[in-house]
Design goal:
Bound molecules: FE2/S2 (inorganic) cluster
Strand content: 15-25%
Strand order of the largest sheet: 2-1-5-3-4
CATH class: Alpha Beta
Helix content: 10-25%
CATH architecture: Roll
Number of helices: 3
Largest sheet: 5 strands, mixed
CATH superfamily: Beta-grasp domain
CATH topology: Ubiquitin-like (UB roll)
Structural class: alpha+beta
């Protein structure tokens, strides 16, 4: 099964299974990644699914939309150049092994 590895802010690594077509947020909430809140359910309205994409994977993700870009400015944790909303990262086979770092807070 393809996987995504989440790295918690304390350094703990948590690999989970991910299915093609679901978002990284959906995979995370389905498998109780507690650093992803996803309060808006994936509608790009809350920024509580904020992640920092591992640098090695950043260029392999599709460009962010204007809505995602604007929402990231309001994320609780600092916005960094590798910030993305995990609900906007649609998982595909070529993202098997994706590494996402969790911020220290989502609220
Ligand atoms: S789940 Fe709300 S913006 Fe991603």
């Amino acid at each position: 099964m393809p996987s995504i590895t989440f790295i918690h802010s304390d350094g703990r690594r948590q690999p989970i299974e991910a299915s093609e077509g679901e978002s990284a947020m959906q995979a995370a909430t389905r498998q109780d990644i507690n650093g992803i809140l996803a309060e808006c359910g994936g509608n790009a309205m809350c920024a509580t699914c904020h992640v920092y994409v591992d640098e090695a994977w950043l260029a392999r993700l599709p460009a962010m939309s204007d809505d995602e870009d604007a929402l990231l400015d309001g994320a609780a944790a600092d916005r960094l150049p590798n910030s993305r909303l995990s609900c906007q990262i649609k998982f595909a086979a070529d993202l098997d092994g994706l590494v996402l770092n969790l911020p220290d807070r989502q609220l």
